[in-house]
Amino acid sequence: MLVTVSDGKAVRIAGDPDHPVTQGFLCAKVNRYVERTYHADRLTTPLRRTGPKGSGQFEAISWDAALDEIATRLGDIARSTDGAQAILPYSYAGTMGMVQGESMDRRFFHLLGASKLDRTICAMAGTVGMRMTVGANVGADGEGVPESDLVLLWGTNTLTANPHLWPFILEARARGAPIICIDPIQTRTALQCDEWIAIRPGTDAALALGMMHVLFAKDLEDRDYLERHTLGHEELRVRAAEWTSARTAAVTGLTEDVVVSLGERYGRARAAFIRVNYGLQRHAGGGMAVRNIACLPAIAGHWRRPGGGVQLSTSANFQFDRAAISRPDLGPAVRTINMIRLGDALTLPDAGTGGPPVRALVVYNSNPAAVAPERNAVLRGLAREDLFTVVLEHFQTDTADWADIVLPATTQLEHWDVHFAYGHHYVSLNRPAITPVGEAKPNSEIFRLIAARMHMTDAAMRDDDVTIIRQALASQSPKLRGVSFDALLERGWMRLNLPTPYLPYADGAFATPSGKCELLSSRMADLGFDPLPDYIPPYESIERDPALVKRFPLTLISSPAHTFLNTTFGNITSLRRQAREPEVLLHPADAERRGIASGMTVTVHNDRGAFLARARVEPSIREGVAWAPSIWWGKLAGDGANVNQTTSQRETDLGHGPVFYDNQVEVGVA
After folding, report:
1. Per-residue pLDDT tens for 246-290?
2. Whose CB among 64, 92, 103, 582 lies 3.0–4.6 Å from 613's, allowing a Cys bridge?
3. pLDDT, tens only, 469-512
4. Which of 398, 466, 323 is nearest to 642 (CA)?
5. Cβ distance 440 to 410 under 8 Å?
6. Closest Cα to residue 290, out of 187, 426, 156?
């Protein structure tokens, strides 16, 4: 992106018209980044809590006072009988980039001996599903999509979550490719597609198995590719035979005709592209679902040609030297706490791990008081008087309200960084366009300062940001050959050392132990799962808990609102105005049964909690499903609650990820 600066102030932000992917435009959210940077509520000085926890009452203090207090409190805990493992970092992707996201912070906590955080909240289920099948979270190149003759947008609201892919999809359509959206909700993307398949939530793995049945039964498989480049295709043929169109339809809630037609069209296509996104892996069998879908291109041979294959992410191709920048070699071996179990970690005496209770929490690049599952448990933990909480932030978020010390952090416009991508293959250099607003400091600098106050003398804590960028790029991976700091400084972005279009598995060469696409996976068996593609029903489903479903018959999906990126941008007035207010979308039949009309205030609830929302009744959602576009800051919602009052801390089958959409609720008039 390009930032226009006048008299030292950013005045405009835009996509780089020369960039092959951004092509001169940005998403609806990032378009408001200048407004966000200079927002009236931007934190500009350190703060110390003066009122009760959660009250949001603070006084401004100096950096020296803030650093002294943090160093003293963390030092006292580290020297106590509980030790430094009683200190927990909590971060994710609020500020993207290698420097501000996983460099000096990781070094600091490693040296300190703090507990480690398993950062699973977004993509780990699908990532592991890809690894078990193709060897890495590496898939088809979006720049090849114009060559596709069939595009399946599976569990992705592309126009909201991945708009830079859309021009490539439109080019494929102009050449004759049908665009099909598979989603329980008729999203703005589904409205723009040629067909909407309203699948039952959490049954994507079953649909993939049903498609496999059609491919094998109608001789639509690529036998040569299966023989040369896959492992276990004969065993999979037997498994797929069990998934008749009738069985698949019964599980997925689709008709047999839809299942057969989809399988036939996929098999007859020359280069079908499947874009899967993270929503469809947020249930009990999410990892298996992605694994099953990742098998399809190998069965049909779509990996052979530009525009064919499946893409969950391109991130694994960005093989920065992460060990050099995060230094996992520093410090002792310690426990790891899963970030989606934060409620348990803060409320159970042994943090749910058998170790000491968490006595200090350092939050940066995240807003767990709003985004973590089972929000009521998280808030009970944050309310503990014996918990020392530090938050690095741009704004006084829900989480910041519970802090003891709040530190003002810089935005993307104010610091150095280097970025990988999820949907393309270009490394981006993030140059500071303006000086920091107020007294804000980069995350990296904040952790350097805390380390200095705690008398950490290791040289690793003295590297500056540009040095860290150079360390990240000094990788031995051939994919980063030629991508240097100096070259990025000149241009701003560079494509990885990959051909265009990139065909990762045209000739096999999968990154699995066998070197083949593992339709049959011994590693899955080692983890206790079926080695073949399987269907794992949601925890909260008619298959596994019919009594619960009877009490709470609606499956709640809480994917991001068009103008929110989780809770980022949730406080920007213009974007919040577009999101209107907390809403829940219901099918007319579900609304009629409950006496609900559009515009009514309703309560969405289950045994974990409840929140209020404005009902919107439309046929643009599958019956039995509710959609609450998210994630609202609790403090900006009328009842102080959001959708995560109802979500659980359960984990996915693979990767220990969250099950945000494995969530049964009831909706009633408030």
Report:
1. 999 999 999 999 999 999 999 999 999 999 999 999 999 999 999
2. 582
3. 999 999 999 999 999 999 999 999 999 999 988 999 999 999 99
4. 398
5. yes
6. 156
Residue 21 near residue 426 (C-beta atoms within 8 A): yes
CATH of 42-121+328-410+438-464 among 1.10.8.60, 3.40.50.300, 3.40.50.740, 1.25.40.20: 3.40.50.740
What's residue 174's pLDDT?
A: 98
Average pLDDT, stretch 158-181? 97
What fold characterizes domain 546-669? Barwin-like endoglucanases (2.40.40)
Residue 556 makes CB contacts below 8 A (sequence gap 6+) with 604, 625, 626, 627, 628, 643, 646, 661, 663, 664, 665
The secondary structure element, H or E, covering residue 174 is helix 166-174
The domain 125-312: what is its CATH number? 3.40.228.10
The pair of structure tokens assigned to 439 is 């007294």
Identity of residue 610: A
> What is the spatial distance between Cα 194 and Cα 550, in angstroms, rounded to a whole number?
35
Distance CA 252, CA 156 (A): 17
H helices present in 594-668, as ranges: none
Contact 302, 229 (CB under 8 A): no
430, burial (CB in 10 Å: exposed 0-12, middle 13-18, buried 19+): buried
Question: Could you tell me how far CA 463 lies from the centroid of its own chain?
Answer: 29
Q: What does the pLDDT look like over 30-85, one tens digit per residue? A: 999 999 999 999 999 999 999 999 999 999 999 999 999 999 999 999 999 999 99
Q: What is the mean pLDDT of the chain?
A: 97
Distances (CA, A) of 587 to 185, 247, 611, 666: 10, 25, 19, 13
In degrees, rounded to 5, the angle at the alpha carbon of residue 39 between the alpha carbons of residues 93 and 34 is: 70
Q: What is the C-alpha to C-alpha distance for residues 455 and 75, in angstroms, rounded to an integer?
A: 10
Identical fold at 42-121+328-410+438-464 and 125-312? Answer: no
Domain ranges of the chain: 1-38, 42-121+328-410+438-464, 125-312, 546-669
In DSSP notation, 189-255 reads HHHHSSEEE-PPTT-HHHHHHHHHHHHHHTT-S-HHHHHHHEE-HHHHHHHHHT--HHHHHHHHS--
Alpha helices in 534-583 (DSSP H): 546-551, 573-579
